[in-house]
Amino acid sequence: MSQRRETSEDGNEMLFDHGAPFFTVTNNDVLALVREWESGGLVAEWKVNLGSFDRVSKKFVNIQQDGMNKKYVGVPGMNSICKALCHQPGVESKFGVGVGRFEWLEDKNLWSVSGLDGQSLGQFNGVVASDKNVVSPRFRDVTGRPPPLDLTFAPDLAVKLEEIPVNPCFALMLAFSEPLSSIPVKGFSFQDSEVLSWAHCDSSKPGRSANRLCKDCNCTNWTSKAFRSNIKKGG
């Protein structure tokens, strides 16, 4: 649920959804919440055809017609949902704050969170970590600091986190001066490719009209994902 803003050499602003390109809903309770977001203008249905590109035959295959599975996107960006949640009653948002340590307070049944400077950021009933690097030794390699979460007190949790797969990838943000008329879909996965995973046309999503962003051109923006572990170094 993330979006990147870039400015071209001619000063035009370009938007790329470099995280999840869209989401679908299968749970009725979640669907009710999504419909609330939709009525509030936070999300909209992305009515496009998706498919796959067969790298061997160099043809687009398995084209899914619009309407088979509803696809939703944030408006005007995938981060609109997160922004709205930050303004919910009772929610206090802090930006630009680095977390240096999580600590479980057994006597209080609470999490204690400290900043990189050691100052307390508060005590909480729950903590949500979006990346397993909070417990990974790699955290020390990158930051020079120990991982924020010490799992010596919870070895069972350490085993579960170790089982979570991690597949590093690159997001390729591509802008073209003209629509790619040779591509019959607005999003597709790659078949028989060890590197490329998928590509989607960001400009085709609701609230992301290329004409709105670049009033003097007919450009189109695409985002593609490539797996870093499978990219071979040159030479």
UniProtKB/TrEMBL annotation:
Taxonomic superkingdom: Eukaryota
Protein name as it appears in the record: Uncharacterized protein
Source organism of this protein record: Citrus sinensis
